[in-house]
Each structure stands twice: as C-alpha cells, then as structure tokens.
Amino acid sequence: MSESAARGGGQQLGRAVKYGWAPLIALAATVALESGERQSLAQAVDGIKGRFHVSDAAVGFLPFAMALVAMFGAVPIGVLTDRMKRTILLAWAIAVWTVCMLLNGLATSYALLFTARLGVGAVEANGPAAVSLLSDYYPVKDRARMMGLYQSGALIGAIVGLVAGGVAVELGGYRWAFWMWIPFGVATTLFLLRTPEPRRGDQDAAFEEDLALVVPGGTDVADLAEMRGLLPEPVRTGTLDYDRVTPREVGRELLRIPSMWFGVLSISISQLLLSALQFWAIEYYKRTYHMSPAEAGAVTALLGIGAVFGILGGGFISDRYLRRGYINARVYVVAISSIAATAVLLPAFISTTLAITVPLFFLGGVFLTLPVAPAEALTSDVVVAQLRGRANAVRSIVRTVSNAGPPIVGLLAGPLGLRLAIVAIIPLYALGGLVMLFAARHYPKDIAFVIAETKRIRGA
C-alpha cells in the first residue's frame, strides 16, 4: 500500500475496525495529566506567592504560559498530526511534559517557573492529535459519547489534582504539586507507545451505512433530504488532493465550514469561565469561607463530581437524539446547557452562604460541562479526516483565548475582590451558548459534505 493510501485510508476500504476501550483509556490519560496538574497548581498558589513574592495577577498568568505553547506550536503539530503516526506524536509530548514536571518543582525563581510552564504546554499543543485519533477510532454516530468519555479523563485528573494535590502540598510543600505527577507521566508514555494507529477516515466512510440505523433505508446522502430532513444533499463538491494540499488551500477549505467556526467561537467564549473556575475556585473557598487547602480542595471537587455527570451526559444525550433523527442535537445541547450554567452559577457566587453556594456549585458543574462533548464532536464531524489535525490546530489557536480566564479574574480581583470578579465573568457562558445557535443552519450541510467528500476520496 502506498504512503498516500496508508495515511488517507486508501481506496475501497472495508468496514471500520473496532478498536475497543484501550485507545480511549490511553487518550483520556493525556487529558487527565493536563487537567490534574492544573488543579494541583491551584493548590500551590500560596506556596508560589510566598516563595517568589508575586501577586495574584502574576500567579494567574502561569496557566496562560501553557496556552502560549499551544498557540505557537499548534500549526506545526497540526501538520504533523495529518502526516505521521499520531500515537508516537502524543507519546513524545507526554515524555516532554513529564520532564517539565520535574523542572517546575526545581525552579528557583518565578521566571524559571514560568519558563518551565511552557514545556508543560506540550500536552495542550498536541490536542489536535488526540482528537484526530479519537475521531478515527470510534463511529461518528457515537462520537459525542466517546468525546465525553475521553474528556472524563480530565475530570478524573482534576479530582486527583484537587484532593491529592492538597494533601501533597500540605505534607511536602508546593513543589510536590508538580512532582506527584511524574510516575503518571512515565506510565502514560509507555501506554501510548503500545496503542495501535487507526486508518484515517474509516469511521466517516462508515457513517453513511450507520445512518440506516437512524432512518430506515437511509443509506444514500442524496436521498436523505426526503427522510425527516436528517441531512440535505451536499451543496458543494470537493476537488482537493489532500496529499499535496498547500497551506493556503487548507485555509480556504476551513473557512468554508461555518458550523466549525461558530462551534469553536462558542466554546472559546464559554470556557473563559471554566478555566477561571478551575484555577480560582480553591482560592475562592479559602478566602470567602477561610478553609484550609485540603478542605477547599475537597469542596471544589464537587465541581468535578458534577462535571462527571455533565461531561458524560452531554455526549449521551446528543447522540441519543441524533439517532432519533435530530441532526442538530449537538448544537442544541450546547446552547441550552450553556444558558442553564449561567442561571445556576450566578446565585451560587452572589451568595456568601455556604449552604446555598455548595449545592449550586455542584449543579453548575453539571451544566458547565454538558456542552463539552457535543461541541468537540460537532467541530470534528464537519472536517474531512485528512485535514482534521490542521483544523484542530487552528481551533486550538482560536481557543487560546479561553485560557485568559485566570488572568482576567486575577486582574479584576484587585478592585472587585475575588468573589465579585468571578461573578462578573459568569454571563460569558450564556453568551457562548447563544453563539452556538448560529451553527444550526449550517451543520447539516457541512456534515453532508464530509460524507460525500469521503466517498470521493475512496473512489466510491
């Protein structure tokens, strides 16, 4: 088989391979490390401020350091994702991340600590590889559900970081917020090296057959417009040679996918709040209710527990309604849950009564994460497999804005106080949901194009 066929899936390939649960676990481990370390970093805030004598605003910029790597490294990583074995790419990223965990703990100044944080961003920069792999491991009709299970790794990591990170910092000092992750990084690297590489586009090619499960007899894209309006006939045709496509042609192709852009803009706006809460929630409970690091971590873990229901529920709900023929199910789950999150979290942080804040905080965790899996699935659905790495790279650059949540809250905390600074940015989540509604008009056309383009590439 030629290099082109091996990379792009070749001609007339059979039914997509069933890979089982092992690849999902390997990919979930990568986001578990990233998210967990962010939470243990939050436990180290007091120690970092005391050791290096810096302000809240300076500490708030530490998570943003990882975003710098994601922003500058996303494009080359996206190209590599589309051209090399993605499992190897991710294994190298986790290896670099593990070394940087050691360097974070050894830093003797704020400047060195900030520099070491850039290396930690190796995992975040490789997000395109993980999403591309997941899209090729599992069926399109189950994609939101599998995205939810993948993202649940971040929740597990966050809970470990909050609880175990608090204990580690109390017993050994802030440096152990970083060093505790080194064994996990080594294990994940080895796991990835043993994970199989899927063929690109097999799941997209199989989706047309899967649609027969949604609408009886509906196996031809051209006929789907008559079947409960599930999918329209594609309104454009593809002509690109994906083995020789230029960066300019890639950019033009991506600009012709409006639902992807509404999706990424929506989630970028919304996750300003999510990234801020991930970083500042512990400090909020410590300052407002005078809790110890371990106590604050345990209470903040309620956000993670609620998020388990949200991250899994969003994927299951949107896929269930997709099977019933509601092609825009992923759009509506994102929009409705984003608005609900704002309605729940505003009174949670306006209140200064723990008995009110805690249950609303838990419920807010559910609604905050309901949009994550369907949004990730939606933005992958509408891009052909051969461009998915570069598309994810572009989305990663745009979504870098969401990492500004911690420094924005840190800056607002000066004049407003931490509690009111958080309250001030909560409405952004509802705004992100409203933006997603604009994708409803374009999503069916965009996904119909992907199916038709996959058939063209395969010579069907």
Number of domains: 1
> What is the first-to-last residue Cα distance?
18 Å
Structural class: mainly alpha
Would you count the extended β strands for me?
A: 0
What coarse outline follows from CA principal-axis ratios?
globular
The CATH topology corresponds to Growth Hormone, Chain: A
User: What is the CATH class name?
Assistant: Mainly Alpha
Give the overall pLDDT as a whole number. 80
Helix and strand sequence: HHHHHHHHHHHHHHHHHHHHHHHH
Helix content: over 70%
Instruction: List the total number of helices.
Output: 24
Question: Could you please describe the fold and organization of this structure?
Answer:
The protein has a single domain, classed as MFS general substrate transporter like domains (Growth Hormone, Chain: A, Up-down Bundle), CATH 1.20.1250. The two termini are about 20 Å apart. With about 450 residues, it is mainly alpha-helical. Helices cover about 75% and strands about 0% of the residues. The model is unreliable at about 1-15 and about 215-230 (pLDDT under 50).
